[in-house]
Specification:
- The structure is a single chain.
- The protein is of the alpha/beta class.
- It folds into three domains: 293 residues, Alkaline Phosphatase, subunit A, CATH 3.40.720; 103 residues, no CATH class; 95 residues, Arylsulfatase, C-terminal domain, CATH 3.30.1120.
- 35% of the residues lie in helices and 15% in strands.
- The strands form four sheets. Strands 1-12-3-11-10-2-9-5-6 form a nine-stranded mixed beta sheet, sandwiched between helices.
- The chain is globular.
């Protein structure tokens, strides 16, 4: 299941990274031997936008270097492809229906057991810096400085134990600065540490750091083969979602076209408040920053006004603008990952530190004509995952096991020699790291809940095996979809009720039933959660139906 890949520039490094046996689970490491942990989580970073996975869009040399020095997971997935629930799963090692946070409207129960609390109890210094998005105050951390809700790209405010503070600068730089300051404060001690280093980028509305704008605004990117997908091979869920680049991507805040031009040309503005977001973001800039911004976006606005694209040409134009800004925010992420890794090297921390790079889920970069996430289709279900652990993970390896964000909590506890609570539903990845994962899972379970709501992706759950995927969409519909990922990797043709797949369909239904029982999810649980959401909607007038 695992293979080694090396580039010449990293051959010497790979030779130096031996792969001795990891400590057995019941041997508790001495305090000084317990590994430090740096958990890097970005927001909406598609695996397609990391050059270790795909070099067609952007070069990410610093993230790639982590992969060359450690393990790159080709099949890392999430349990629920949306921001806050994904973070709650990572913290608790439990599915959304168990940890209680199933969508972005829920509030995280901060009294429950999380892996930072258990590490802290066993002597770890702990911190979370950057995006939190769980509404409640972080617990289990000696230090925390987190963005309110989604946070801002420019001159961001932070929640702290002492109230709100505002920092000057670009958010990705600022989060890194604060993280390195905290590391400086703890690295001289004898205690191991956990740093949850969590970026806002590349979350919508994709406002790049000013020095990074020029690199991408002059480039043209290859269009995905399914940019103009007509959804004929799928059911209502794909057809009725509201996250198409053509219709639902906002020309103002998303594509950086001034609201006056949008209105002048008569374009239908999807949700007027996105125009306000554009102006609010722009007004956060200083006069000097506005001048830099206008240098690049002024000509883009002028060209758009002259072109006034319509139909497919509008989709093509918006796709290019989307890629230019989305990738621009990733450039800063990669640069700052490089800064932090250089800090670890210069301070001698690198050798005893586990570094994990991941995202809270995947993201659509024009595939199926979409942006955003939520679906169990591969682009949003799958997430990037890279782990470096010198001496424990052989450098330059690629792994194909089916792993999930559910596995982070038990992995970190196991690495620290701490007993993993029995009610955690994930599995430690230490056997995978050591090439001893002979008895690994053969299928993954997924469940998405936030409907009706933003982007209108219908509620669904399903199972994915090595080759096949079965999805059940429910609530206002009752539809099943089955995909053969070997023959149809882009998931264009639903094979459900195709006689040729009758045996596969039957086996997938059985495996799905087994997984729902294993993870304590069933129709009764689903119905109860649905009724609770309906009552919440009535109280808060959140949904229109």
């Amino acid at each position: 299941m695992r293979k080694t890949w090396m580039f010449p520039a990293f051959a010497a490094l790979a030779v130096s990274c031996a792969n001795p046996e990891p400590p057995v689970a019941d041997e508790k490491p001495a305090e000084s031997q317990k590994p430090n942990i740096i958990f890097i989580m970005t927001d909406d970073h598609a695996y397609q936008a990391i050059s270790a996975y795909n070099d067609k869009l952007i070069e990410t040399p610093n993230i790639d270097k982590l992969a060359h020095q450690g393990m790159l997971f080709q099949r890392g997935f999430v349990t629920n492809s949306i921001c806050a629930p994904s973070r709650a799963v990572a913290l608790t090692g439990k599915f959304s229906h168990v940890n209680g946070l199933k969508d972005n409207l829920d509030t995280f129960d901060s009294t429950q057991v999380t892996f930072p609390k258990l590490l802290q109890k066993e002597g770890y210094k702990t911190a979370v810096i950057g995006k939190w998005h769980l509404k409640t105050q972080p617990t289990g951390f000696d230090y925390w400085k987190v963005l309110p809700d989604q946070g801002q790209y420019y001159h961001p405010e932070f929640r702290t134990k002492n109230g709100m503070v505002k920092e000057q600068g670009y958010v990705t730089d600022v989060v890194t600065d604060i993280s390195m300051q905290w590391l400086d404060s703890v690295r001289q001690g004898n205690q191991p540490f956990l740093l949850m280093y969590q970026h806002k980028a590349p979350h919508r509305e994709w406002w790049p750091n000013l020095p990074d704008i020029e690199e991408f605004t002059s480039r043209e990117f290859p269009e995905p083969a399914t940019l103009f997908d007509d959804y004929k091979g799928r059911g209502r869920a794909a057809k009725e979602t509201e996250m198409t680049i053509h219709t639902h991507m906002a020309l103002s805040s998303d594509n950086k076209i001034h609201p006056d031009i949008v209105n002048k040309l008569g374009y239908k503005s999807f949700m007027n408040w996105y125009q306000r977001i554009h102006l609010e973001q722009y007004n956060r800039l200083s006069a000097e920053e506005k001048a830099q911004w206008d240098k690049y976006y002024g000509p883009i606005n002028e060209d758009f006004e002259k072109l006034a694209p319509q139909g497919k040409e509008l989709t093509k134009w918006k796709y290019q603008r989307y890629m230019q800004d989305y990738l621009g925010t990733i450039r800063s992420v990669d640069d700052n990952v490089g800064r932090l890794m250089a800090y670890l090297d210069s301070t001698g921390l690198a050798e005893n530190t586990i570094v994990v790079y991941t995202s809270d889920q995947g993201f659509y970069l024009g595939e199926h004509g979409w942006f955003d996430k939520r679906f169990m289709y591969e682009e949003s279900f799958r997430t990037p995952l890279i782990v470096r652990w010198p001496g424990k993970i052989k450098a330059g390896t690629v792994d194909d096991h089916l792993v999930q964000n559910l596995d982070f909590a038990p992995t970190f506890l196991d690495a620290a020699g701490i007993q993993v609570p029995e009610d955690m539903q994930g599995r430690s990845l230490l056997p995978v790291f050591a090439e001893k994962a002979d008895d690994w899972r053969d299928a993954l379970y997924y469940h998405y809940y936030e409907y009706p709501g933003f982007h209108m992706v219908k509620r669904h759950y399903g199972v994915r095996t090595d080759r096949y995927k079965l999805i059940h969409f429910y609530y206002d519909i009752d539809e099943w979809e089955l995909y053969d990922l070997e023959k149809d990797p882009q998931e264009m043709q639903n094979q459900y009720d195709n006689p040729e797949y009758a045996d596969v369909q039957e086996k997938l239904h059985l495996r799905l039933k087994e997984l729902r029982e294993q993870y304590h999810d069933n129709d009764s649980v689903t119905t109860a959660m649905l009724h609770a959401d309906i009552e919440r909607a009535k109280r808060k007038s959140i949904y229109s139906k």
